[in-house]
Design goal:
The protein is mostly helical. The protein contains 13 helices and no strands. Helix 5 runs antiparallel to helix 12.
Amino acid sequence: MGHDLGYAALALLATTVYYIAFLVFRVSARRMEPLRGSRPFRVARLMLTDPVWLGGGLLLFLGLGYEVVAFSALPLAVAQPVFALGLVLLVAFAVRFLGERLGLREWASVALFVLATGLIGLSATSEGELRADATLTGTLARPWTMLAVCAPAVVVAALVWLVGDRRAGGRHARRLAGVAYGIGAGACAGLAEAGIRGISILYQDTGSARAVLESPYPYLTIGLAAIALGQLQVALQRCRIAIVAVVLTVIGRTYLVLSSTVLFGEQWPRDTAPFALRAGGFALALAALALFPRYEEPAARAHRAAAGKRVRAAP
């Protein structure tokens, strides 16, 4: 019991550090000139030459590293609620201290996401815990499987970037809400985490760093993480952090579970009750996505613009 409590505290600390990095990225985004997804190399240059962004990146990887340690030692039923608590704290901070406003539909969507996370946690059993118990040989021998898993995430991210850069003029112009950017960045982030899992499993199976470097997993992690971070930075410059972080987190965890099922042969719970809980969690997550507004409401845009002016005017 004490062992689990210690790792639960570490998981909460790691999740807090992870989300503090989002706040640092937001400060960095507000300092940058307008970012455009159609110019990814320029976005990358601005990020990598900004010391504030680099500090946020360090926090992000520290938080992620400690999450891997803590969550690998915790049952899913404990880890998921801890992660949901960190997400709730971030939303509360954004509303209380950053002045972000959420509409009724958005609050309902956030609540559904948190409930979905809890259901997935409750679905954990000794049989259904998320772990790769299949060898990676089959995956490495069938590159088309890897491509089939990666393609949807990359395509979604590209579409969001390109559509987000199409700014219709006039008084009726409508800007994409954070849910769209969160979906694109979250899918890529989930795949990057799947790559980390692949590296870990392959190294445990072979004990060889060379085998890891010859596998696709390091390059999957680096490539998809770069896309996710770039899209996150564009999103934080244009959208509310509360919306972006919630959608990115839930989509990322969902894509991690689904891609791990394909890549590593991970099994869902076979008993009726745990299976229903996990399926219900995914159904609620999809319902929350459907409920989120696709475009920013005029009042939210005006409030965010005013907040941005106050930030830029501050000494």
